[in-house]
Amino acid sequence: MSQPPPSSVPPAAVPGSPSTAPPSPVSNSSSSAPSPFLGEAVIPLVNKLQDIFSQLGSASTIDLPQVAVVGSQSSGKSSVLEALVGRDFLPRGSDICTRRPLVLQLVQTSRRPEDRTELVEWGEFLHIPGRRFTDFAAIRKEIQAETDRELGTNKGISEKQIRLKIFSPNVLNITLVDLPGITKVPVGDQPNDIEARVRTMILSYIKHETCIILAVSPANADLANSDALQMARIADPDGSRTIGVITKLDIMDRGTDARNFLLGNVIPLRLGYIGVVNRSQEDIIANKSIRDALVYEEGFFRSKPVYHNLADRCGVPQLAIRLNTILVQHIKAILPDLKSRISTQMITLQKELASYGELTESKSGQGALLLNILTKYSHGFQSVVDGKNEEMSTTELSGGARIHYIFQAIFVRSLEEVDPCDDLNDDDIRTAIQNATGPKNVLFVPEVPFELLVRRQIARLLEPSLQCARFIYDELVKISHRCETHELQRFPQLRRRIEEVVASFLREGLSPAETMIGHLIEMEMDYINTSHPGFIGGSKAVEIALNQQRGAKALASKDLHDSERPPSLPEKQAKARAILARTNAASLVSHEQVASKPSAVPQEKAGTPGSSGSGSTWGISSIFSSSETRQPVNGSSKEHVPARSFAEPAQGPLESSFSSIQLREPPATLRASDAQGEQETVEIAVTRLLLKSYYDIVRKNVQDLVPKAIMHFLVNHVKRELHSVFIRKLYRENLFEEMLQEKEEIAVKRKRCKEILRVLQQAAWVKFLLSFDHHC
């Protein structure tokens, strides 16, 4: 960058060159290679990027290099900034003055002496494009007015920036952000947590690695308690990007100086300290100019021998040079990564914008868009069911894997855990057997109770089978929700229509699946195939039951022989009662025989062979493969003895001494007798074996056929026909406009995404970025 000749611009007017010294410090620092190019190129480049990204506000995620000015109230921040500019332009007062971040871009301009019509110094606000402020008092008023427009006249703060550019030949290229001063006590309408809010705002700027921290602290206060340095240490613990500014050196206590502060002996900073002398409040009230203040500052440092060998660390001109140099170096180090971040964000935004799609007004375009959405949905549904989805989860089962889990781990396993006889006790089976014989005595185990009981157990399989179908239906509904593409989110009406069609189609597939499951169970119940090769059969069941009975008897006999102790008194009493009961029963039988007719004697004799035969063998029905034949109970005798009529009067001398016998009425509910004989025990055991054997056959059939029915009528049917159903019910020209009505928020997101992408494209094509790469 080039400096105007001393004759055209007084040295005292240029921050960086004192009134009595030649402008060589500034010119030397700015004329040494490569500083002129970097100072003139990279800082304006970053300024341009800042202007571009300021259009995005908080939406921008790109952190640009900048210098943030941090300090407490009355620390001298405003005086330092005005000294760097050389003009009075910031609001002042006893309360908090900076209530919004002020992004101040100092742009050095050159002025030709012969062109007197060219503006020398002016300011421009980003919120008032095209208007130049040549009166710096008007700049102060506009800052205050813009602050009030956002916050009103109270003392609140806002994170919304005010961006100001100042063009002058008397400045160096620097970009600073003036942040609100740290305050302790709220005033006016300020909230009680004003200090926390200010600190949060400051940290939001200085926490980024791209930010240089200008920590302003007054010399007449303890540096160890400086609010600015404390905030800087939080964001920059090693002090690698913090510059310390010590203000008000001229009002320190007599006999003290800031030498140790400037040398970094108290709190070391890698970028060092700069000491400056501010205008006092009295000077400001007296309208003392910045130029006169710089002359006074120069005279102060010359009059203090303690600062003579610290000339490079004293004065506003040295602060301007230091800031310019550090900012240029900082930008040079960060700019390559900045390009990479801009490119990465552009790619991300282009993908996001593509997901929002574009609207079309033509019917053909709308039809193509609708067909594309329906096709993607159908293919997505099929790929999720088949396990070919690209977004396959690695943390949980999904899609078709959940369907397989329901079939095998839930349905099949649940049926295997069911005992067909768990809800049948011995009394239930005995009652069923006796009911099946009708008025006759139980001579053998009939088929009717077996079929009745096995049908009851088969019927229990219907409910879990239907429940399995419902589970699969629910999973298909979940899969349909997973198939909703990002593009489908744009159109709520189309999404609702698709959900309705899918739900209806799934219900249509569920109905025949449930019907088929019902038919499967009814088929098993309608025909009990006892000839199935897997069925145990009657003979085998009887053999197993008899073996179990013999084993039980042998075990009981062994236990009886092993017991050598004499029976106890209760056991003796029980045996006595049993003998007495048998004696009474025998007496009752003898009395009945005496009272019977003499013709009953031949019948008893005739029935003796049959009676003895029934005691030695078991009568078994056809399902037990029995070939035994039985004689009639009355033998083959054809004798007919007329029975006495109930109305016939009793005869004999003893009959008159007996009173008439009255029978008690049968109860309303009858159960099988509690006394269970050996034959009944075998019959129950045989029935249980037959039930379990046949139930296992049916269970295996159901475990195999129910999943097949669900897959055929529901899952595969939906996969095959979903796209055709979409075309038939949704692809109608009169519905295009209604279904493709876009959500308002999607339109807003698309507009915002386009805006950010446009800004990033502007930033990526800034010509200074390319020239920087070429020269560096």
From TrEMBL:
PROSITE patterns: G_DYNAMIN_1, G_DYNAMIN_2, GED. InterPro entries: Dynamin (IPR022812), Dynamin_GTPase (IPR001401), Dynamin_GTPase_CS (IPR019762), Dynamin_N (IPR045063), Dynamin_stalk (IPR000375), G_DYNAMIN_dom (IPR030381), GED (IPR003130), GED_dom (IPR020850). Gene3D superfamilies: Dynamin, middle domain, P-loop containing nucleotide triphosphate hydrolases. Residues 1-34, 553-575, 588-660 are annotated as: Disordered. Residues 607-627 have a biased composition (Low complexity). Residues 61-336 form the Dynamin-type G domain. Residues 556-565 have a biased composition (Basic and acidic residues). GO terms for cellular component: cytoplasm; membrane; microtubule. Belongs to the TRAFAC class dynamin-like GTPase superfamily. Dynamin/Fzo/YdjA family. This is Dynamin-related protein 3A.
